[in-house]
Design brief:
Blueprint: E1 12-15, E2 22-25, H1 31-43, E3 47-51, H2 57-68, E4 72-76, E5 79-83, E6 96-97, H3 102-113, E7 118-122, H4 125-128, H5 133-141, E8 145-149, E9 153-159, E10 163-164, E11 167-169, H6 175-185, E12 188-189, E13 191-196, H7 203-210, E14 216-220, E15 227-233, E16 242-244, H8 249-261, E17 266-273, H9 280-287, E18 291-299, E19 304-311, E20 319-320, H10 332-340, E21 345-348, H11 361-371, E22 375-379, E23 382-386, E24 394-397, H12 402-413, E25 419-422, H13 434-438, E26 441-444
Parallel strand pairs: 2-17, 3-16, 6-7, 10-12, 11-13, 20-21, 24-25
Antiparallel strand pairs: 1-25, 1-26, 3-5, 4-5, 7-9, 8-9, 13-15, 14-15, 17-19, 18-19, 21-23, 22-23
Length: about 450
Amino acid sequence: MHPTSPSHATDLLRVEPQKNLRGTFIVPGDKSITHRAVLLGGLARGTTRILNANPGRDCAASLAAIALLGARVAGGGPLTEIEGVAGETGEPEQVIDCGNSGTTMRLLAGILAGGPGMAVLTGDASLRARPMARVIEPLERMGARVLSRGEGRAPLVVRGASLRGLDYRLPVASAQVKSALLLAGLRASGRTTVRESIASRDHTERMLRAFGVQVAIEREGNGAAAETAVSVEGGTRLTAATIDVPGDPSAAAFFLIAALILPDSEVTIERVAMNPTRRGAIDALIEMGGAIEVRGLTDDGLEPTATIVARSSRLRGIELRGASIPALIDELPVLAVAAAFAEGTTTVGDAGELRVKESDRIDLLCRGLAAAGVRVEERADGFLVHGGLRPQGATVDARGDHRIAMAMAILALGAAAPLEIRGAQGIPTSFPGFAEQIGGARARR
């Protein structure tokens, strides 16, 4: 057996229980912010410098895609430089493979909708099964021409067309759909407005401003009828920027929860993104009784950041549903792990979106927890976790879903015996080097 490494994606990961977890941990640059910096940098005039870009396979797919559209990419790791196409994307000479990245596919669909020529977007089996109709339908209302497999599944064929601005209300909170429409709106005639009643991630709005685009944001109505309207004007060009990507809060959540559930533990993670639309998991853990400190909160004009410290804690079950879900949707699998070690029951609802992520995460999560002896009840739009019993050793299957695999690895740290995690090859999608940092993890062939 050999420790996993960023260059070695293993299908089977064995994770041993740990007595504690202490120290300062490193998380990769935020994945959502990296995607947007890469794609906007590729569209901009001039050379964009991206510091601390996420090194995972998802963001690599966005880099490869923007290169196929004519941008020139250099460097990597601490510094990535992109010489953009000044809004003049070329027709790609080959199919664009988005890998496992829904962000890449949906945002590219918006970028390509108003461009020249034709492009084909595909991905792995998981991405080809994910719903794309939610972005195709509003793009077609703008005048886009998009072909897909039945029920809006990839591969997508996007033929450039003259677009017109659209006033669109999101039926389901989705930062990816919102972003695709705003990017299409830059090439449309008139104004494009996207309305949402539940706030989704606002990284695109922030990033557009960093690239010189005027973004109008208005809050309309009160109470349950309130909504946010985000607008851009067509014909706007982007100017290159320097983007220093903060640490990914979704990645940080794994270490924070490990510290909370293990005795005699304390972890520190520096310069983590603390965007209000992304800190939902931290707020939930504090509500559960987690000893978490947010230190040195600063805002550099792009994204707020802070140092986060977490210590061993006695957790209690809580209820998560409604407007709180979009701000922690990606962290729900590992929050379920925290719930397994908490006193009482944690209830998660209004999270049906988990069923159309890289996998049916509700199904896989409940299966994995149950295999380890955790009392869990599956619901159509969520689950209940009855905490208080120490998880047991087991073999679980993540089926290639990186977040399920990493959540099960954190569960293993506090279990009574080792867990073997099948389908762990997806971890480098977002977090190369994860297994080395948590300790007790070994790749098995």
